[in-house]
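User: Predict the structure for this protein chain, please.
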Amino acid sequence: MIKSERFQMLMDKPTLAAVDDWGFANRIRTRAEAIRQLIQAGLKASDAEMKKGEARA
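Assistant: Here is the predicted structure, written as structure tokens:
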């Protein structure tokens, strides 16, 4: 199991509401888990974009 680390984050209300709405729509129980999943999705998408760019070069 990967060791977790705690950190603090500030977020504006509209963004936090969007995270909460996304989490509710995806049946995610906690805000923290919703944020973890959104970050993982963003990192995966970013990696895919970088690989597309490398393939074009």
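The chain has two helices and no strands.
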